[in-house]
């Protein structure tokens, strides 16, 4: 057991529950953006949840509950059956609603182990609403912290810890992978503390050279170096009565680590070239993406920094937060556009090695493409930066028995009949047909353009579309099958022809 297990962080971050976890269903994406992040939280034992258009009720803490409500969701229930071993079985509804697990269409019941549910399972209903099935070890609560968004247990727990430690004045060590929001957490600690009116002083320890680190941290006495005619304060002096954030503390030069230990223990430090000590009351918050116990790092300094340890969870362990993060990140961008549900499902299934920072960059690219009228896939936004699309690995398999690990196919190996059959079998949805054919969506677009039977929606006369829509009762998928054109493009064309 590591040293930090004995710090004040333990009661909140490592809860040891005597009972089973709560089964939660979180809305990752919904045609009504205000619904994103709402949750239904079930019980802890064997139970069956019936999920349809009218039940159960999804809510935020302190608000009234509402059903999913969307017309694309069946009135017949999809049953989530939990047994005594926390295995979850998804029994499909007796309806034509398309159900996807992990971004792939499923036709039969899906069985998920407790461990698979713990990873977060992405469930798409009617190609319109994206949900996440996951466990929770605490009830939802409203505990806002500036800049830190999330509705799952991990996010709630981190915010609880930040709110608890911020007023205490203890040194805080933030641990986590790159991009998990350690700097945002440091700013939140400062903003929630009694020092909020003072500045937050930040220094990147990895940017300090061996020769200049002591001067940058503790200052320089006048005349200590050639070219230093006047005294210069270091960051500990600048952060007196304020908060000092030492980012990438694992990269602190070895020579200054004992000096850091001294100032943390008693507040005393000595500027370079000075004859007397000075004092600083700076409150230190440090962060690292390294295993500081395994690294060549001053262990006594580590123990001083571990006054309170907060571990920032990676994004892949909190898929239930993807929806609210997307809403927040898109809200920060100019000209943002709504994302297709299929893309959100792909984003939620991705493991995000760069965490929230990488998600932010990917969303920026997605907004640019959507602004040009191009609907991107995850392949367009992530994988194709590394290798050509047809050589890229298949998307991550869904976390359950619906997984299909078949390799990609070459578009040139597909006949016109293969393409037509796949489109017809998947309600003329390009993403679903591409997955069934095991090719990328851009490759399927090229095959559709050259197809002798399948039509481009923008070339179909308006009167033909109007007659087909009337005959199909406004059902876009049925109309797409009648006209032999992709449903997404037809829906966009119909909205232009019949605005409002």
Automatic annotation (TrEMBL):
Matching CDD domains: AAA
Organism domain of life: Bacteria
Location of the region described as Disordered in the Swiss-Prot/TrEMBL record: 386-414
GO molecular function: ATP binding; sequence-specific DNA binding
Stretches assigned to coiled coil: none
Keywords from the named record: ATP-binding, Nucleotide-binding, Transcription, Transcription regulation
Gene3D superfamilies hit by this protein: 1.10.8.60, Homeodomain-like (1.10.10.60), P-loop containing nucleotide triphosphate hydrolases (3.40.50.300)
Domain called Sigma-54 factor interaction: residue spans: 148-368
GO BP of this protein: regulation of DNA-templated transcription
Entry-linked SUPFAM superfamilies: Homeodomain-like, P-loop containing nucleoside triphosphate hydrolases
InterPro entries: AAA+_ATPase, AAA_lid_NorR, Homeodomain-like_sf, HTH_Fis, P-loop_NTPase, Sigma_54_int, Sigma_54_int_dom_CS
Pfam families, A to Z: AAA_lid_14, HTH_8, Sigma54_activat
PANTHER family: C4-DICARBOXYLATE TRANSPORT TRANSCRIPTIONAL REGULATORY PROTEIN DCTD, TRANSCRIPTIONAL REGULATORY PROTEIN
Protein name listed in UniProt: Two-component system, NtrC family, nitrogen regulation response regulator GlnG
Native source species: Massilia yuzhufengensis
Lineage, highest ranks first: Bacteria, Pseudomonadati, Pseudomonadota, Betaproteobacteria, Burkholderiales
